From TrEMBL, chain A:
The gene is nuoL. It comes from Paenibacillus sabuli. It is found in: Cell membrane; Membrane. Pfam families: Proton_antipo_M, Proton_antipo_N. This is NADH-quinone oxidoreductase subunit L. PANTHER family: NADH-UBIQUINONE OXIDOREDUCTASE CHAIN 5. Residues 136-429 form the NADH:quinone oxidoreductase/Mrp antiporter transmembrane domain. The keyword Transmembrane helix applies. Residues 70-120 form the NADH-Ubiquinone oxidoreductase (complex I) chain 5 N-terminal domain. Belongs to the CPA3 antiporters (TC 2.A.63) subunit A family. Keywords: Membrane, Transmembrane, Transmembrane helix. The chain crosses the membrane at residues 6-26, 33-54, 87-107, 119-136, 142-161, 173-195, 215-236, 257-275, 287-308, 315-333, 339-361, 381-399, 419-442, 463-481, 501-522, 602-622. GO terms for biological process: ATP synthesis coupled electron transport; electron transport coupled proton transport.
TrEMBL record, chain B:
Belongs to the complex I subunit 4L family. The gene is nuoK. NDH-1 is composed of 14 different subunits. Subunits NuoA, H, J, K, L, M, N constitute the membrane sector of the complex. NDH-1 shuttles electrons from NADH, via FMN and iron-sulfur (Fe-S) centers, to quinones in the respiratory chain. The immediate electron acceptor for the enzyme in this species is believed to be a menaquinone. Couples the redox reaction to proton translocation (for every two electrons transferred, four hydrogen ions are translocated across the cytoplasmic membrane), and thus conserves the redox energy in a proton gradient. Keywords: Cell membrane, Membrane, NAD, Oxidoreductase, Quinone, Translocase, Transmembrane, Transmembrane helix, Transport. It comes from the Bacteria. It catalyses: a quinone + NADH + 5 H(+)(in) = a quinol + NAD(+) + 4 H(+)(out). This is NADH-quinone oxidoreductase subunit K. Its EC number is 7.1.1.-. It comes from Paenibacillus sabuli. One of its GO terms (biological process) is ATP synthesis coupled electron transport. Its main location: membrane.
Length: 626, 100
């Protein structure tokens, strides 16, 4: 098999890196130049990604690997390498497309920001890290890029660092994901320990576990432990319960960032990581069950919170958590193809929804959905594209979200009917909260005074493009077209279960029911929308606060840790500090004595020299005596 | 015989050392240094005559030392006078420029 373009895959992450370096070197004043360089770098990366994807679409296995030795520890080489497989080619394409569109959109959204060139620099750095993460051929370099995307996320959430909330959110995102990252690091260490020849590349992992040697080289308990630790890392990045708390707060960042990092690409890195090490997960049924259950729980849990949020971006953030839960559930159920399928479609329609939200926020200068309303006629393009995204998310045919969600639910019905029920409930809530969002924002009458204008073409253009992708991305895997083309292409084996007519009808009905309910409550107003919050206000407020998970963390972790810190400060710290202070003052006194010796009197120096000589003589003589 | 010379020299040296370190007058300090040099010369000559390997070298050395010492005293006195003129003081403990 010839691979022409895949040989140049290493260029894909390097192009944004070069763009980042040039933008940083140009400094803050070069606005137009920075925007142009960032855009060109991303466009070139996208072109290459498209070429590689088309090449990988060809018949046969066309995996391409390239390695160079980075370090040599003893006789153990550490390598940096890239690996182009079907999975990475697909992920590269998705990341590159969304990056370019978000870059374009940010030209409009950030146009009046004084630090726009810094923003584009960070954006390019993020693309470098994310594309590098996708292309990495071993866990070690993946981990490096994994942390690098975390840093970019931190920088971009805190981009408006003059806002205290943004600062706090940036810290929170960094620290909470770090908890998961420790799991990933431990998993890597365990794998290093147990793998034959300490191999950490995905190919070796795949070979070991695919050939069934997995249980031969390590005990099944160890495999489960590694799988669960990997999942902990993925849960931190992908906002799975109980590490989801950072994602809603991350909405303090600029909206294009929410679309790119916190909806389409970085949060999907957890799913991607598990898909990359999927053969290891398959070797541990216990871990798979845990992943499926946590995913399903997160899907339902986050969907209920999304139902009562007032901030447009927080609704979408909880929705993202919920959809990532779907993907995790699919992974846990053994349907990796379905998970990746949902990852792709979700990347498109959720990025679209965030861009639409940004367009709305810029028009009305608020994020509270209760202060919006009636925007539909004034912002037709935004309303239409947002509507397409919402329908795709709600899972109505023939939009992309329908096919991918259908694939996941079909797998759930086949494997774990209980999880199918949970998934179905989450799907109903998804349709309901999207209908609520859409009707509150675009329907009804405009309550606030002031003119509202549609966003400029540079912002609506990417939205239209993403709307097109949201409409059509479902076609890459239809339930009946050669039985799971995407799964076959990704994993080399047929998908275990195909959507049946029953599942399709049920999911469509559920989606339609959710939207109809939403329309009744928030569109037409037949049902009193405040009925529930008047009847049980504490319940609604509790859900709105995200079930007080933050408060639980505060009580269970933050306050005890702070108390322990203060205790440590009083006890050992006081002891150690006092010792250190004593040493310090001793040195000070010694110094003062030294300066007193330096009197400038020649005779005193002479006397000291004579005494020293005497001492030396005594010492030499004394040694003879003893 | 040698030990008597050496004891004498040691006594002279100690008196000179005491004077050089303890006396305040610059002139006395210079005199004391001469005393120490004298002690050294005495040693040289004593070793040259009564040492383990008697040779003329020691006495020649003593002559050299006397010549150098004369030159040194000339310089020393000149310095002391110059300092006295500049500072109006002839006491060694008032000269503490090395401190600065």
């Amino acid at each position: 098999m010839t691979t022409i373009y895949s040989q140049f895959a290493w260029l894909i992450p390097l192009l944004p890196l070069v763009a980042f370096l040039i933008i940083t070197a140009l400094g803050r004043s070069a606005r137009a130049g920075a925007l142009l360089i960032g855009l060109v770098g991303h466009l070139m990366a996208l072109m290459l990604a498209v070429l590689i994807f088309l090449e990988q679409l060809g018949p046969g296995q066309r995996d391409f690997r390239q390695q160079l030795t980075w370090l040599r520890i003893g006789d153990l080489p550490l390598t940096i390498g890239i690996e182009v497989t079907h999975l990475t080619a697909l992920m590269l394409l998705v990341v590159a497309i969304v990056s370019v569109l978000v870059n374009l959109y940010a030209l409009g959204y950030m146009r009046s920001d004084p630090r726009i060139s810094v923003f584009f620099g960070y954006l390019a750095l993020f693309s470098f890290a994310m594309l590098g993460l996708v292309l990495s051929d071993n866990l070690l370099t993946l981990y490096i890029f994994w942390e690098l995307v975390g840093v970019c996320s931190f920088l971009l959430i805190g981009f408006w660092f003059t806002k205290p909330a943004a600062r706090a959110a940036a810290y929170k995102a960094f620290i909470v994901t770090r908890v998961g990252d420790i799991g990933l690091l431990l998993a890597i260490l365990l794998l290093y320990w147990h793998m034959p020849e300490h191999a950490l590349d995905f190919n070796s992992i795949q070979n070991v576990f695919q050939s069934g040697q997995g249980t031969a080289v390590m005990e099944s308990g160890t495999v489960t432990l590694i799988a669960l630790l990997l999942f902990a890392g993925a849960a931190g990045k992908s906002g799975q319960f109980p590490l989801h708390v950072w994602l809603p707060d991350a909405m303090e960042g600029p909206t294009p960032i929410s679309a790119l990092i916190h909806a389409a690409t970085m949060v999907a890195a957890g799913v991607f990581l598990l898909a990359r090490t999927y053969d290891l997960l398959l070797a541990s049924p216990e871990a798979m069950l845990v992943i499926a259950c946590v995913g399903a729980f997160t899907a339902l849990f986050a969907a209920t919170i999304a139902l009562v949020q007032r901030d447009i971006k927080r609704v979408l953030a909880y929705s993202t958590i919920s959809q990532l839960g779907y993907m995790m559930m699919a992974l846990g159920l053994g349907a990796m193809g379905a998970a990746m399928f949902h990852l792709v479609t979700h990347a498109f329609f959720k990025a679209l929804l965030f861009l639409g939200a940004g367009s709305v926020i810029q028009a009305v200068r608020t994020q509270d959905i209760h202060q919006m309303g009636g925007l539909g006629p004034r912002m037709k393009l935004t309303a239409w594209t947002f509507g397409i995204g919402a329908l795709a998310l709600a899972g109505l045919p023939p939009l992309s979200g329908f096919w991918s969600k259908d694939a996941i639910l079909a797998a759930a019905l086949h494997e774990q009917p209980a999880l199918f029920a949970v998934g179905l409930a989450a799907a109903l809530l998804t349709a309901l909260y999207m209908a609520r969002l859409f009707f509150l924002v675009f329907g009804g009458k405009r309550s606030e005074p002031g003119p509202v204008f549609e966003s400029p073409g540079v912002m609506t253009g990417p939205m239209v493009a993403l709307a097109g992708l949201s409409l059509l991305a479902g076609l890459i895997e239809l339930p009946w077209s050669g039985a799971g083309r995407l799964s076959l292409w990704l994993t080399g084996s047929e998908a275990a279960h195909h959507g049946t007519a029953l599942v399709m009808i049920v999911t469509t009905a559920i989606g339609a029911l959710g939207i109809y309910l939403g329309w009744l409550i928030y569109g037409k107003g037949v049902v009193n929308r405040t009925a529930l919050s008047e009847r049980v206000p504490w319940l609604v407020r509790w859900v709105e606060r995200g079930y007080d998970v933050d408060a639980a963390y505060r009580v269970l972790l933050v306050i005890p840790l702070q108390a322990a810190g203060r205790g440590l400060q009083r006890g050992p710290e006081a002891l150690i500090g006092e010792t250190v202070r004593r040493f310090g003052s001793a040195a000070l006194w010694a110094g003062r004595l030294g300066t007193r010796l330096q009197s400038g009197q020649v005779q005193a120096y002479g006397l000291l020299a004579a005494l020293g000589l005497l001492l030396l003589l005594v010492a030499v003589m004394g040694r003879g005596w003893w | 015989m040698l030990s008597a010379y050496l004891t004498m020299a040691a006594l002279l040296f100690c008196i000179g050392l005491y004077g050089a370190l303890a006396k305040r007058s610059t002139i006395i300090v210079l005199l004391s240094i001469e005393l120490m040099l004298g002690a050294v010369n005495l040693n040289l000559v004593a070793f040259a005559k009564y040492g383990a390997a008697p040779a003329l070298t020691g006495q020649i050395f003593a002559l050299f030392t006397i010549a150098v010492a004369a030159a040194e005293v000339a310089v020393g006195i000149a310095l002391a006078i110059a300092l006295f003129r500049a500072r109006g003081a002839s006491r060694a403990d008032e000269y503490n420029e090395m401190r600065r």
